[in-house]
Write a structure and sequence with these properties.
The protein is mostly helical. It has one domain. Helices cover 71% and strands 0% of the residues. It has 8 helices and no strands. Helix 2 runs antiparallel to helix 5, helix 3 crosses helix 5 and helix 3 packs antiparallel against helix 8.
Length: 198
């Protein structure tokens, strides 16, 4: 009943994903609106969101939701907030995140940043994941290890610093929102009691 009459093509779907009709400001406003309305303590919401933001800096795309949920669980944070926090990593921010994490990680590991990166994936590389998982892991690390390792090392300090900053910002904002909401609800209850007494 609510389906589109004409399904958008692949290029249009990619464009809508990268550039939402309402703009990125509206998309972020929606994420923030959903985050602050989660039924949890300010610490739980902030810890969950920070976990998602931190994981967004790691190179494990495709596993960010799972890793963020696990980290949020360890931090006693909201798993829902962790899923929303992974929105920090998106098609517009990933190029900057990857550039920063790779360069910092290479610097920390002593890699030569001037050397060129060559990626030569063997034929049927992704098919190995299904047919021969052990061989796939070996080839994966041999081919992509020199890129993923610096990104992972660089993600720890950058993502950690970003996650800590996000934690305090979100906790403060959520606490203020919940206090204002509690005050509004208390005032509404007082008005209802006055109306009932009249």
């Amino acid at each position: 009943m609510f389906a589109r009459r004409e399904k958008p093509g692949l290029l249009r779907r990619v464009r809508l994903f990268l550039f939402p009709p309402g703009g990125l400001h509206r998309a972020w406003a929606y994420i923030w609106h959903r985050t602050k309305r989660i039924s949890a303590s300010p610490h739980a919401i902030a810890a969950g969101f920070a976990a998602g933001a931190f994981v967004s800096f790691t190179p494990f795309i495709g596993f960010h939701f799972i890793l963020a949920g696990i980290l949020a669980w360890f931090l006693r944070g909201s798993i829902l907030a962790s899923a929303l926090g992974t929105g920090v990593g998106n098609p517009l921010t990933f190029p900057f995140i990857w550039w920063a994490t790779y360069n910092l990680g290479s610097l920390l590991l002593g890699y030569d940043l001037k050397s060129e990166i060559h990626i030569n994936l063997p034929h049927g590389f992704w098919l190995l994941a299904i047919t021969h998982p052990g061989q796939f892991a070996h080839v994966f690390w041999e081919v992509l290890g020199p890129i993923i390792l610096p990104m992972l090392v660089g993600a720890l300090p950058i993502g950690g610093a970003f996650g800590i900053a996000v934690y305090f910002l979100v906790r403060t904002a959520v606490r203020r929102y919940q206090q204002r909401r509690s005050a509004r609800l208390a005032e509404r209850r007082r008005q209802l009691r006055r109306q009932a007494a009249e």
